Amino acid sequence: MKIMGVLSGINAAQQSAGTNASGSRSTTKTREGARDKVSISAEAKRIARESSAETTDRQSRLEAIKAQVASGEYSINAKEIAEKVIQKEPESFLAEA
To answer: Which pTM was predicted?
Structure first.
C-alpha cells in the first residue's frame, strides 16, 4: 500500500494553513510587527481544568489499586463484574431464535 500520495496532500494542506512539517503553526507577520493572536474561551479553559482533575483522580485510584495488588489485598468480585457486563451489553447475551 502506497501512502505517499496521502502525505503529499497533507503537506499541501499544512502549507496552505501555515503549519510546518512538525505540525507547529508558523507565525506569519501580516503587517510590520503584527502577529497572529489566539484566545482560549472560558468553556475550553473549564474543560481543561476538569480534564486535569479527572486525570489526577484517576491516577490516585490507579496507585491505590497498584498498592493493593502488590500487598495481595486486591480482590475481584466476579459476580459483580458479570452483572455489570450484562447490564451494559444485554443484547450480547440474548439467545438467538
So the answer is: 0.38
